Amino acid sequence: MRTFWHEGQLAHRPASEFFNGALHPAADKVERAEHILAAIGRTEAPHLPDEATLQAILEDVHSADYLALLSTAHAEWRAAGREGDAMPYAFPVRRRPLRLERIDARLGQHSYDTCTPVAEGTWPALLAGTATVLGALEAVLGGEHAFALTRPPGHHAGTDTMGGYSYLNWAAIAAIRSGRRTAVLDIDYHHGNGTQDMLAGREGLSFASIHADPVSDYPYFWGHADENGDNIRNWPLPRGTLLEAYDAALAEGCAWIGEQSPELLVVSFGADTWEGDPISHFALRTEDYARLARRIAGLGLPTLVVMEGGYAVEALGHNVASFLSGF
Ligand code: SP5
Ligand code: ZN
């Protein structure tokens, strides 16, 4: 397993998120990456192309106006006389193209929650994260397994929306750019709504997700048991799920992925399914991740693992190392 990481990703340092009627310290702390790095040891630094090159690659996957907003939102926020991170507060329920001026309005057009602030270093970190994914994808296209230590996470980001701590969708970028028949298996605690929306109906690409039932858990409006299209399958599971039931869903997910005859697998891996996660409610143990990974490796596909959630910072490195040991 080759592992990729660019230290520029540390520049993303959001201060807080807003939920339950109050501001809380941001769950996507920089320490998450530091603990993973300490546990997995040596990583490869990808080449960091210039901004224009990366932007052109990203425009094949995300919309140009969304990327433009991500790159300027924090400066615009400052120019409007604000302090801290840029954060929306009003959202269009009816979406239609409107040319809006005010930064709050434009943030709202491209967001769907109040947990995903654009901080000063967010855009440079996203460019570094893109390089990390592209480096790992190259290794996987060469037939190897690779881990892209992506942070911030990506699977809640849509073509032109940020949410759930996600801005750019790493799994979708890899799947679309691969040019191969590719399956995405999403095993973060939360449904991978952005990836699902971006891959739905796309020839040669498929998406399977195992996650907390959205009747009780974020992102609420996606990932329900009836959301199954030609290339989409969802396995919502109740709070409290233990290894046995989780592994049974994974066996079904892997069987379905096999039927899609992919040449390449992308795994959106979140360790927020761990028993001690502070914002989640499954009960997997550290050693369970190696077992789940062995089942996934049994598909026999070159596999790109991208990092999604996992917020129990002290345990996160061990959980990631356990998972990667199964490949
Ligand atoms: C990538 C990823 O895992 N994103 C998850 C975003 C979840 N945001 C939900 C915020 C609300 C959390 N409620 C926590 C209650 C703690 N007692
Ligand atoms: Zn998650």
UniProtKB/TrEMBL annotation:
Keywords: Hydrolase, Metal-binding, Zinc. This is Histone deacetylase family protein. Belongs to the histone deacetylase family. Its cofactor is Zn(2+). PANTHER family: HISTONE DEACETYLASE 8 (PTHR10625:SF17), HISTONE DEACETYLASE HDAC1-RELATED (PTHR10625). Gene3D superfamilies: Histone deacetylase domain (3.40.800.20). Residues 31-325 form the Histone deacetylase domain. It comes from Sphingomonas swuensis. Pfam families: Hist_deacetyl.
